[in-house]
């Protein structure tokens, strides 16, 4: 089977959970299938085409004109798919916009089934944007299959459709599947870390301001890994406390970061799918404290494999951090159970479900 993966950005370079997953799947699927990744050439010094890890990456030029960029992306992606030889059997589109839009259009024109994998709740909050409220349900309707990362994502998506696009609810329900993230499981002794750690883009939705305030109240050292437009404001907020801003952390450096973690925090206000950063900390057997955003609700049971707090609750987060610091036995128990939870997401455990979905989509043809 020839699988073409469509995604807006692809490592190396700045990336998040969706890009990590796309790269991981490209590597693993390529041992049995032909895999081609179609992505943007951003930054511009990246090669237009490269062969690595058993798959091919095709990078397309990026328009710098905001409104024109979407149209240019869609046209370029369709041309790139059209040029592939052999013709892909299925298009795996990471995110609804713009890859899903382009993939469904290209698939319809070329007779190739397109599967759209929604990567976070922001994609299906249809009331937040008139453009997405109009475009996204039409993209999903045109796809051969639609995937989400967790059962809670599935429930929330169907609820949004019921509210904003009820006419498309029944058809989408039939082709909506749940497949979680794949995960590398570290081996060997992991020891005990020393610092609270929070990983993510430095944007308001991630709640890093809450993490800084809570760590200060708890009197615990903090490492924040990630970059973004909020960095300067967060650095000013952290002044006078032991907070390290690690910036963007490469995959190679993630191991050291996790080994120095005593507890991992995800204080997101919204926007999550199945948080990769949470799963990675759990794979290292670290206790986690998180807000109940989307897929987090499918991962964590409060007091069993982590602690759950409300968004924007600095007092509750500080109390949770103090509790774990004062009770090493509790931290160890939560960390051990977190590791057992993470093992369900090992690549080999998740792979059969994705391959089955791809084969089913490739065999049933494009939705019309």
From TrEMBL:
Residues 16-154 form the Glycosyltransferase subfamily 4-like N-terminal domain. GO terms for molecular function: glycosyltransferase activity. InterPro entries: Glyco_trans_4-like_N, Glycosyltransferase_grp1. Gene3D superfamilies: Glycogen Phosphorylase B. It holds the Pfam family Glyco_trans_4_4. It comes from the Bacteria. PANTHER family: SULFOQUINOVOSYL TRANSFERASE SQD2, TRANSFERASE. This is Glycosyltransferase family 4 protein. It comes from Eiseniibacteriota bacterium.
């Amino acid at each position: 089977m020839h699988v073409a993966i469509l995604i807006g950005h692809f490592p190396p370079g700045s990336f998040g959970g969706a890009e990590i997953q796309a790269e991981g799947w490209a590597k693993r699927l390529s041992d049995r299938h032909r895999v081609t990744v179609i992505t943007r050439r951003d930054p511009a010094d990246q090669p237009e085409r490269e062969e690595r890890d058993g798959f091919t990456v095709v990078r397309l030029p990026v328009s710098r004109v905001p409104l024109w960029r979407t149209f240019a992306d869609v046209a370029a992606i369709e041309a790139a798919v059209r040029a592939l030889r052999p013709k892909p059997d299925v298009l795996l589109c990471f995110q609804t916009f713009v890859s899903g839009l382009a993939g469904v259009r290209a698939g319809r024109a070329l007779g190739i089934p397109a599967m759209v994998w929604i990567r976070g709740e922001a994609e299906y909050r249809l009331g937040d944007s008139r453009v997405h409220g109009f475009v996204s349900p039409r993209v999903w309707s045109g796809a051969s299959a639609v995937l989400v990362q967790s059962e809670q994502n599935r429930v929330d998506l169907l609820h949004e459709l019921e509210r904003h696009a009820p006419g498309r609810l029944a058809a989408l329900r039939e082709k909506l599947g749940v497949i979680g993230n794949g995960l590398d499981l570290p081996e060997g002794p992991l020891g005990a870390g020393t610092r609270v750690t929070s990983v993510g883009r430095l944007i308001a939705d991630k709640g890093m301001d809450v993490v800084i305030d809570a760590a200060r109240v708890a009197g615990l050292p903090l490492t924040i890994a990630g970059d973004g437009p909020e960095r300067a404001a967060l650095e000013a907020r952290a002044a006078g406390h032991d907070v390290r801003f690690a910036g963007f952390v490469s995959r190679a450096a993630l191991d050291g970061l996790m080994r120095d973690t005593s507890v991992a925090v995800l204080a997101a206000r919204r926007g999550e799918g199945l948080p990769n950063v949470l799963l990675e900390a759990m794979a290292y057997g670290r206790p986690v404290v998180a807000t109940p955003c989307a897929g987090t609700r499918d991962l964590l049971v409060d007091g069993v494999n982590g602690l759950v707090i409300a968004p924007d609750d600095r007092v509750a987060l500080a109390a949770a951090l103090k509790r774990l610091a004062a009770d090493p036995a509790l931290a160890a128990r939560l960390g051990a159970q977190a590791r057992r939870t993470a093992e369900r997401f090992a690549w080999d455990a998740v792979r059969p479900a994705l391959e089955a979905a791809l084969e089913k989509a490739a065999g049933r043809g494009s939705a019309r």
